Every structure is written in structure tokens, then in C-alpha cells.
Amino acid sequence: MLEQRDLDILKSMTVSVVEKSEESVLKQMDEKLAKQEESILRRVDEKLLKSEGLLLDEIERTRGILEKQIAKVQQNVDEIYKYYRITKLENDNIALIIEQLEDLTRRMEELEGKTA
Fold it and tell me: Cα–Cα distance between 33 and 46 in angstroms, integer?
């Protein structure tokens, strides 16, 4: 059987080997985790860039549609404004004609009153 001193030496050697092994395993795990983290971050960045591109494309498409609709509405407003101006001028003209007709009617009544 082994003596206590031999057992202590064996124990210390075993502890030393286990510690070195543990350090090596931890170091390898840290390296692998760092690589995986870097890989995950790179994939996330790629996905974010792709999503951003898709989002910008959709925003641009929506903007184009809205600009067309706004142009159409503006064209309709311009046409309505033209009709409004024409109608206003016609109303003003009709008001002037009515005023002249009333004036003529009044003058005619005055002439009829003088001749009668």
C-alpha cells in the first residue's frame, strides 16, 4: 500500500491535473461561446439589415401609392375650384342681370306712370 506522503503527492498531482484540465475546458468553452455569440450577432445583424431593407422598400411603395392618390385628389380639387369660379361668376352675372331687370322694370313703371 502507498504511504501518506505518496498519497498526498498523488492527490496534489491529481488536483493539479484537474485544475489544468478545468482551466483548459473553461478556456475552450469561453472561446466557443465567444465564437457562437459572434456568429449569432452576425446573423442577427444580417437579418436586421434584410428586415430594414424590406421595411424601406414597403415604405417607398406606400409612399408612391399615396403620392399618386394625393396628385389625383389635388387634380379633383383644382377642377372643383374651376367650377366654383365659373359658378361664382355666373351668380354674379345673374345678380347683375336681375339688378338691371329690376332697374328697367322700375324705369318702365315710372314711364307708364308718366304716360298714363
Answer: 20
